[in-house]
Amino acid sequence: MHLAWATGDSWFDRTFTVVDDGTEVASFDNQPTLDTLRDLDRQYGDPTDRLDLWQAGLLCTECENELNGRFGADSEGNLLCWDCAMDHQGTTEGGVRVNTDPTKSVISESHLHTKSLCDHVVNVVTGCKHGCEFCYVPTTPAIDGRDQMLAEQADVEDPQSDWGSYLLYRDDLPERLGNLLEKRDPSERKQTKRGRGVVMLSSGTDCYQDRRAAQITRGVVAELVSHNIPVRILTRSPAVVRDIDLFQTASDRVTVGSSIPSFETPLVRAMEPNAPSPMARWEALDRLRKAGVPVYISMSPTYPTMDEGDFHELLSYFRALGEIVVFHEPINPRGKNFQQCLAAAKQAGYDDVAAELKRMQADHDYWIDYALDQLTTVQQVAKRFDGLRVHSWPDDELLRSTSGKLQSALKAMQQAVSPESFIGEGTAVGQQSPPLNEIVQCPDMH
Ligand code: SF4
What we know:
Elements: E1 2-7, E2 14-20, E3 23-28, H1 34-44, E4 71-73, E5 79-81, H2 82-87, E6 91-93, E7 96-100, E8 108-109, E9 120-121, E10 125-126, H3 147-154, E11 166-169, H4 173-183, E12 199-201, H5 211-226, E13 231-234, H6 244-248, E14 254-259, H7 265-271, H8 278-290, E15 295-302, H9 308-319, E16 325-330, H10 335-347, H11 351-362, H12 364-382, E17 389-392, H13 396-400, H14 404-415
Parallel strand pairs: 7-11, 9-12, 12-13, 13-14, 14-15, 15-16, 16-17
Antiparallel strand pairs: 1-2, 2-3, 4-5, 6-7, 8-9, 10-11
Bound molecules: iron/sulfur cluster.
Iron/sulfur cluster binds at residues 128, 130-132, 135, 137, 205-206, 236, 272, 275.
């Protein structure tokens, strides 16, 4: 599929046509918006092919220069050249300040291979509307140290406390990623045993949180898939189902997961104020797996009041999604955001959760006991569901606080490869970590 234009009386008086396989599928007297073009791309293009917007005769809506390099868009999706995008004042939509992100990087190496998730990450936007109370992203380089840029682009005063109220899109990411992948020798790509060369979207935002982010995500995934690169998507947004056609053509090189820590909607809403409900996430995964797309769950972070019955209910829903992998991590009492979680639980009327969180923060040994107990309980409950595999994420502090066999078992868990095979036959299906249930009772525990 490609974009063509015919000039009228002047260069600026042009007709645009979108042509698919020699057939005109749309025409415009005025330049179409980015949204319209990407919609057409979705509707008519080969799922793994991207309508290249660079050097396609498109003009900046503000200065009318041709878009021959980086570009952005305003809130209506009107295309802007890079200079105008950077000068743009941005807008506020539903209380969220939106604009364009000047980030130069396209794809970053990631330490998330330590969780057996990926070796690289791509973040399609900076910021996240979901505004989860426990979110660690504002403390990472994706946000931390970028105060000046955030202030200039979105009037951000404090990136941490304003988290959830700013969003900077990276509209030209698919084009720039495509360019980079064409130039880069595939053998130079980092590939660790646990990360398996996987690219994850996104560790620092939700890549399907709204339509504009989803449009960028589709372009990025199409590029990665067409270069035969395995992709892991993690999203709380049911909108991910819009790209089922793309995932289906990826021959099992894309896996899609969602974070579902609990089905207790009011508690989840308190902790993740603007994210879709946990059941909506589950239903989206159900649609994906029925369409043949590999899926997984991130059961993280689980809350201290959750017991065996809660985990049984959760895992039974997860098993209904097929023979899937569930990543599990108990909540960790660290950082400024832990205090926010505590306050959010209290405000939502979850005094028991708030009290447990407070106690965990004050009493290190109490937290260690809680974390070990949750990891063990989840593993034991998972045994009731044949075909369900749990990949536990024990925290570093747990390892430092234990010794002997228990510490070795936790270390083995950390170093295990997740038992997924979505990146094709012949992939290491990970040495499984040992069960924790017997070891956790041993006397050399702390
Ligand atoms: S969805 Fe993820 S990135 Fe967004 S606020 Fe929640 S934890 Fe942070």
